[in-house]
Automatic annotation (TrEMBL):
PROSITE patterns to which the protein is assigned, alphabetical: CARRIER (PS50075)
Keyword Ligase: yes
Keyword Ligase: yes
Name under which the protein is recorded: D-alanine--poly(Phosphoribitol) ligase subunit 2
Species of origin: Monoglobus pectinilyticus
UniProt GO MF annotations: ligase activity
Length: 75
């Protein structure tokens, strides 16, 4: 989780994203940020994020991103 927060802190605009329940609606992530986050996650966690995985639900919060990473690591 710490590695994920470190990645997001370099991309998310503003402070307090860790507690956000909706990173997109709260303005912490936009579509270009999600592409960048996806690339960073693939490199750092040795996972493949496909277009099917790039959903609002998967990128809604730090916890939802973390759950997606854990799921993809199992595949």
């Amino acid at each position: 989780m710490n590695e994920l927060i470190e990645i997001l802190s370099g991309i998310c605009s503003g402070e307090g994203f860790e507690n956000s329940e909706d990173l997109i609606a709260d303005g912490f992530l936009d579509s270009l940020d999600i592409v960048q986050v996806s690339a960073e996650l693939e490199n750092n966690f040795d996972i493949e994020i496909t277009p099917v995985d790039v959903t609002r639900d998967n990128f809604k919060s730090v916890n939802s991103i973390y759950e997606m990473i854990k799921r993809l690591e199992q595949e």
